[in-house]
Amino acid sequence: MTSSQTPTRSGESSEPVRILATSPVALIEIDNPPVNATSQAVRAGLLSAIQEIDRNPQTEAVVIACAGRTFVAGADIREFGQPPREPHLPDVINAIEACLKPVVAAVHGSALGGGCEIALACHARVAEPGATFGLPEVRLGLVPGAGGTQRLPRLVGMEAAIDLVSTGRTVKAAEALRLGLVDRLSSGDLRAEAMDLAQEMIGVQPARTGERPVAAMDAHAASAKVAEVRKKARGAEAPCKAAELVLLAADLPLLEGMARERETFLELRSSEQSAALRHAFFAEREVTRVPGLEKVEPRSIQKVGVVGAGTMGSGIAVAFADAGFDVKVVETSESAFAAGQARITDIYDKQVSSGRLTSAVRDERLSSLSYEVGTPSLADRDLVVEAVFEDMEVKRSLFRDLDGVLAPGAVLATNTSYLDIGLIADATARPADVLGLHFFSPANVMKLVEIVKTDATAPEVIATGLAVAKRLRKVPVVCRVCDGFVGNRILARYRQQAEYLLEEGALPQEVDAAMEAFGFPMGPFAVSDLAGLDIAWARRKRLAPTRDPHERYVDVADRLCEAGRFGRKTGAGWYRYTAGKREPDPFVTGLVEEASQRRKVLRRTISVDEIQARIRAAIVNEACKILDERIVERPLDVDVVMMHGYGYPAWRGGPLFEADRIGLKVILDQVNERAPQDGPGWEPAAGLVRRAASGARFYP
Ligand code: 3H9
């Protein structure tokens, strides 16, 4: 920590905490790039700055602000694997609250986790309108560990605090102001306005958050709330613990509540769930750093074309418009054109009616979209994403047209889910400019994008895909071409194994319940009903002539489709739907039992554990084959796809992270036990056999 009588320029010292002014209002600046995390050096610097200011008779009030792009974004997550080192953050924060002089937080960027806890302990908070606040610790499998669960309810009330702490959601400054978490929004110069507020507070007894009373929640309402949190947490343990700690704030004095909080924080810090969620956090960032592309410059993309405005195309167009691209949507006929435009407008209208968007922003976004019929209008586009009918000849013909229209250097992307992108690229004279950008539905919401390269795709085109995904705020995973790429290929095995379970004795609702208890938001049959059974049926019919006759094939889904049951949209599929609610259907039970009879299987009761273990083993084995074939380069690529595209519970860290924890020998035994019955395609992956034999892991 450095101190001076007059402000000094930030960056003069390498110390992460500086005192830039002392009289009459002191300014403490935290400067620890990239996100001002509270490393040990920051904690020590902050504590000594507060102590120095407390002692300085010329200082009458204090502002805490941060250099760089953000306020403090939390504790330093990288330190969590090591033993805690003094001074501990709760002690530093208590010293801030106890300071005899008024302390004001000046918040820009994100005040998250420990950063939000610092702000909560200050005697007032001024924020830039763009600032965000939150206690996202549960997303790392933790509870706030420096007073967050005890101070937040004292400022915003019990219910709002439980909501924020148990979901980890962040709030923008305007909502924080409404909740009482922020006292003022700055209208220009944040630091100057915070200094003004501090000046106004001189001589006034500081309002200490920890001394405020908090109204208890009615006991019945409180237990209902905890039950609701538990249900939503789908197996994650931190959200419930966080909610229970918040409830303590009504009964315990601050320090006692904080002691309970600290105990829970330290216990969770060494939990498997927290390790998995930390892995998920870093994997989501690491996935964008693709070996070999570090120094490759992406092409500049400003003008984007989207061909086809069906469900996928309209979502893709909205994703680009939301990110500020100039978007032209092209349809091949007038009638499709009108329907596409209506679909896009509808996406925005729904966001306005649910309060997620103002009508002014909707109008602005809609005005960044233009609509045309026919590909010639795409001539000025830097990137074109195709989302037309999933048929090789349709796509090849479109790419031939695009090749004739687009300027040299433009990037041509296909959103195909399964087709061989190499063959699509070969329809052009510029296969190096072609790649897959495989979005997930709804494309404007889902974070995952598979960036699929062919053997011909130029490195700068892959780098362009990554840069575009970053601008879209997506999570991109680079992979090579194979049937279904990473996610849908694994999903196919997941679904097949789920169907084998039906044939052997389980019912759809039992498999779904087991996988929902595992932590997936929905089981595989409920997901099929939501997505619609007809598309997969059409694909199965197309592939039927080439199917291996020895493949174990369960035809219940085909029979459902033959009966016109395409899922929710027809009111029935694997379930029947009454007022949107799914119910098991005796008709489906009948079909499943017939399937068992046809295979001459004596149905048996299958336990939840067996369902979960078999599906997990199927996923891990296929994921390992994907690694063996170098469809992706790293285990984390698979884990990120499964967590972001398919709802694999992040508290398990993804299938390969979890497989390491369970033991690869155990998984291999499970695969070997199934392989003879399940037949071709279910052989153990070579990489799984090798690792299990040598004791190696996916993550060394
Ligand atoms: C906590 O606070 C516990 C306390 O209650 C109690 C303690 C006793 N630590 O995301 P980005 C790195 S728990 C270390 O790409 P953005 C990140 O890895 C913590 N490193 O930027 C990346 O590094 P690299 C609660 C961190 O602008 C770089 O910073 N806080 C941390 O898209 C840039 O990150 C959270 O959970 C950290 N805390 O988003 C907040 N945070 O360049 C977690 C980031 O090497 N952080 N890094 O890949 C975030 O949500 C986002 O990073 C943030 C910026 C919104 C801040």
UniProtKB/TrEMBL annotation:
Cross-referenced SUPFAM superfamilies: 6-phosphogluconate dehydrogenase C-terminal domain-like, ClpP/crotonase, NAD(P)-binding Rossmann-fold domains
Gene3D superfamilies: 1.10.1040.50, 2-enoyl-CoA Hydratase, Chain A, domain 1, NAD(P)-binding Rossmann-like Domain
Entry protein name: Enoyl-CoA hydratase
UniProt pathway annotation: Lipid metabolism; fatty acid beta-oxidation
Catalytic reactions of this protein: a (3S)-3-hydroxyacyl-CoA + NAD(+) = a 3-oxoacyl-CoA + NADH + H(+)
GO molecular function, one term: enoyl-CoA hydratase activity
Residues annotated as domain 3-hydroxyacyl-CoA dehydrogenase NAD binding: 303-480
PROSITE patterns cross-referenced by the UniProt entry: ENOYL_COA_HYDRATASE
Main localization, broad class: other
Domain named 3-hydroxyacyl-CoA dehydrogenase C-terminal: residues: 484-577, 613-672
Biological process per Gene Ontology, one example term: fatty acid beta-oxidation
Subunit structure, interactors included: Monomer.
InterPro entries linked to this entry: 3-OHacyl-CoA_DH_NAD-bd (IPR006176), 3HC_DH_C (IPR006108), 6-PGluconate_DH-like_C_sf (IPR008927), ClpP/crotonase-like_dom_sf (IPR029045), Enoyl-CoA_hyd/isom_CS (IPR018376), Enoyl-CoA_hydra/iso (IPR001753), NAD(P)-bd_dom_sf (IPR036291)
Keywords annotated in UniProt: Fatty acid metabolism, Isomerase, Lipid degradation, Lipid metabolism, Lyase, Multifunctional enzyme, NAD, Oxidoreductase, Peroxisome
Family per similarity comment: In the N-terminal section; belongs to the enoyl-CoA hydratase/isomerase family. Belongs to the enoyl-CoA hydratase/isomerase family.
Subcellular localization(s) per the UniProt record: Peroxisome
